[in-house]
Amino acid sequence: MVMGGKKSRNKGANFERAIAKRLREWLGDDWTVKRNPTDRQKGKAGAGEFEIVGPLPFPFAIECKANESFDYGQLFRTPLTGPFVGFWEQAKAQAEAAEKRPLLFIKKNNGPVIAVLGSDSIADIRPVTEYGRQLRIYHMDCYVIEAASFFATYPSMLYEIGRSG
Known about the structure:
It is a single chain. Helix content is 35%, strand content 22%. By secondary structure, it is of the alpha+beta class. The model has no long low-confidence stretch (mean pLDDT 83). The chain has one domain: Diaminopimelate Epimerase, Chain A, domain 1 (Roll). The protein is globular.
């Protein structure tokens, strides 16, 4: 069943709040994480779902998608099917506008949360932690990992990413 209207918006907002909470826990007290209103998600200051301020520039523009039509199996099909391609393209466009790197969190109802990062970002966090299973999608230049694996990295990786651009 496809959800629409207010129920769908509430589901998306609830997912964004859950990711904001995880970000706050991960980053610690030196950082603030605020959800951006929909009309402020474009441009450098408010790219993505959150405004994140801390002791150094946060390198990611984050997009969150809680979508019932997304199926994890779509990631293994050639060509890719379903909404994933549009989600990743939106995350990349927002990140580019803000001169940041894209970070996409996706989940399906009652499913695990996955994180999608560009190949350059995964290369920067690789030395920092063992991040578990990963799927590389070559033609989209991205990696898919479990969100828990992303949050298992040390926030200090942001300093390395900030230096590498």
